[in-house]
Amino acid sequence: xxxxxxxxxxxxxxxxxxxxxxxxxxxxxxxxxxxxxxxxxxxxxxxxxxxxxxxxxxxxxxxxxxxxxxxxxxxxxxxxxxxxxxxxxxxxxxxxxxxxxxxxxxxxxxxxxxxxxxxxxxxxxxxxxxxxxxxxxxxx
Length: 140
Fold this sequence. Notes:
Layout: H1 2-51, E1 55-58, H2 62-70, E2 76-81, E3 84-91, E4 97-101, H3 103-134
């Protein structure tokens, strides 16, 4: 009877280890998916900033590198500079650079974001209309 009890405990211990490994793998996949989405979002933002006229400036000097690490990453920050407002977007992971623009560029960036959101909403609505027709509609 002791042998059977030992085998059951070993089997349960093996299942616990297997379950923990599976949970770790799922968590790792979820985190890597989040990182991929974040990189895509940053790339999309960088494209919009460039299209709006923001200038990309690499962080080459020690002072710029320090600023890059102290600024909130991946956020547009407004700062007063010589009586003028400057908007800065820091990307410390991908390009190790800043995107810098003024009020005109920021206004254009906001317009481009609105345009992209509106276009995405239209695509979702079109997809929903197409998919409801495929599924016969009204079954829910």
